[in-house]
Design brief:
Layout (H helix, E strand, L loop, with lengths): L2 E6 L7 H15 L3 E6 L11 H8 L5 H12 L2 E7 L7 H10 L6 E4 L2 E4 L5 E7 L4 H6 L2 H15 L4 E8 L7 H12 L6
Parallel strand pairs: 1-2, 1-3, 3-6, 6-7
Antiparallel strand pairs: 4-5
Bound molecules: flavin mononucleotide.
Amino acid sequence: MKTHLIISAHPSENSFSNYLAQQLTENFQTRGWKTEWRNLYDGSFDPVLSGRDLQTLKAGNTPEAIRKEQVKMAEAELITVIYPLWWASFPAVLKGYIDRVLTNGFAYSYGPEGVKGLLGGKRVVLHTTMGNTVEEYEDKGLIDAFKASQGDEVFGFCGMTVENHLFYPQITLADEEKRNHFLEKALAAYPEL
Ligand SMILES: Cc1cc2nc3c(=O)[nH]c(=O)nc-3n(C[C@H](O)[C@H](O)[C@H](O)COP(=O)(O)O)c2cc1C
């Protein structure tokens, strides 16, 4: 069965991020995909990569909490990541998830020819909500920078194919019509829907 992992990182239940995660979950499930929505704010995941984690990983073992997340990621052929832009970056909980879950040996490895991504064959779609307009960031060359630093340098680095990175500007001002328009745009990012 085709498996889709949806990772979201917004603390407010009524946020567009969580609405989008809910809609994508339902849409993919209706189409027969095994779909899991992993809400990083459900309190079950500690996002701080600790000294103990690093020691354990260095010794060749994987802490159980990390291993559980890696199993979900390993099973998924499609991974969706939904988050608000906070200080031009990921929310801390998502950054911490990436720090802890995409480990050396699971997501990438170092060899004589450099870094090798170990998660090839997986497709990734990123959805970023934001308070600013896209134009403000484009003028500063930052949309391309966000795509590089949040997509290619993380998921691409691990061998995954970043298929799409969508931005939802001025989301705090969006009325229902605008949210519906954004939802259509989001669904259109998946050829299978
Ligand atoms: C801590 C914090 C930092 C933020 N930093 C940015 C930012 O750097 N750029 C931006 O456009 N919006 C920024 N925002 C606005 C959020 O991106 C916006 O509120 C969020 O996308 C709303 O998402 P939602 O509709 O899913 O609730 C920030 C908001 C918070 C709370």
